[in-house]
Write a structure and sequence with these properties.
Length: 392
């Protein structure tokens, strides 16, 4: 559990002033060389802008005296033992009392003098304000790999999957209205917290704006692990987009498999030759795997909708029109077609006195339809079970 401490009159529990307008929240892990200056600059920006505010430092297990330095500088310091960038911010948000929350790192890479500019955007109606560093990066402030590969690629993927429209999705300086935090329902504990905030804000149709800011060379040692944290961001983006991770690849595989199988069964010539049994096996494999992957995507959508508060218009329309019985009937119908083909093959075999039988293609088709029908049948039940959690 987080604990707090402060020796600054402005943040004493017994005599804290009326609710501040702005809370500046700073996560901290072994930033003894920077934290005092960050707190001072934050207070100075608030004072120069005529903004009533507080500075909250969420310490994440520092061992270099950072918490004491932040306290001496006037910040409200809370101790969050659960490690992680997201954990620190979640604890800081819980302790913050301001109507607006401004986020910034404790490494002096961001100019705290920009705080009034973020507040202006919130006053103008924005609900989430992002900093955009990409055109104002000071020499030596960002590694080449991050500037030209990591950040553009991850931001591009995020915009492709979620259409947020932001240019710098991983900027650490941003501001958010405190009253929209329940709608964001932030949960992640690591560096992917930055992506989660943008994704959930986009899905909640919040007013997201960007302002250009400068990015300065870091003071002290970086805590960022490029490949590990980059993968965590990419993994988070994919996991929160089951349509692109499951449904679309599944549908593509199933359709491709169906076309291949139909071509073989119809004895059509493609590229000047007829495709045989081996091509049929490849086709039905794609059909089965594709159906299963798409079914996993639907279950992922259901879990996100019922348990994580996710919103997806097409899935909402689908579940409003389709019921368990529809899936059961479709699954049963597909199984029925497969069984009918299998029974037809059996009658031919019996008619021939249980002798030789050359119906390999039809047998493979029958087995495939039975398998796919069973997948649809039981996936429908699983979706219905997940739907028991539906919020009324």
């Amino acid at each position: 559990m987080s604990t707090t401490e402060s020796t600054h009159p402005a943040v004493e529990e017994a005599g804290r002033p009326e609710r501040p307008r702005v809370s500046v929240v700073i996560p901290c892990l072994n930033e003894a060389g920077n934290i005092e200056e960050c707190v001072r600059r934050a207070f100075s920006a608030l004072s120069d802008g005529g903004i009533t505010g507080e500075v909250v430092v969420a310490d994440n297990g520092s061992t270099d005296g950072s918490p004491a330095l932040a306290t001496d500088a006037g910040a409200l310091v809370l101790h969050e033992p659960r490690r992680g960038y997201g954990s620190a911010y979640l604890a800081g948000f819980a302790a913050a009392r301001g109507d607006y929350i401004v986020m910034a790192d404790a490494d002096l890479t961001y100019d705290f003098g920009d705080i009034p500019r973020f507040v202006e955007q919130l006053d103008a109606g924005a609900q989430l304000v992002m900093g955009d560093r990409m055109d104002n990066i000071q020499p030596g402030a960002m590694p080449w790999l991050h500037r030209y590969v990591g950040n553009p690629v991850l931001t591009g993927v995020l915009n492709l999957l979620f259409r947020t429209g932001v240019k710098d999705a991983h900027c650490g300086m941003r501001a958010v209205r405190r009253d929209v935090l329940p709608a964001l329902d932030l949960r992640t504990t690591g560096m992917e917290f930055a992506s989660e905030m943008v994704i959930r804000a986009s899905k909640a149709k919040l007013d997201i704006r960007e302002i250009p800011i400068e990015y300065h060379p870091r003071g002290g040692e970086s805590k960022l692990a490029s490949f590990r944290d980059g993968w965590r961001h990419l993994r988070f983006l994919l996991v929160h987009s089951p349509t692109h991770l499951f449904v679309l690849p599944g549908v593509v595989m199933a359709v491709a498999g169906t076309l291949i199988s139909a071509t073989v069964l119809s004895n059509l010539e493609i590229l000047g030759r007829q495709w045989q049994l081996h091509s049929l096996i490849a086709g039905v494999l794609l059909m089965i795997v594709g159906t299963q992957v798409a079914a996993l995507g639907l279950c992922a959508h259901a879990y996100g909708t019922y348990f994580m508060g996710e919103k997806d218009p097409w899935f909402d329309r689908m579940r409003s029109r389709l019921r368990l019985e529809h899936g059961l009937m479709i699954g049963a119908a597909v199984v029925g077609v497969g069984l009918a083909i299998a029974v037809g093959i059996a009658f031919v075999w019996i008619d021939r006195g249980f002798g030789g039988l050359s119906s390999e293609r039809l047998a493979v088709a029958a087995a495939t339809l039975i398998i796919i029908g069973i997948q649809i049948f039981f996936t429908s039940f699983l979706l219905s079970i997940l739907g028991l959690r539906r919020r009324r």
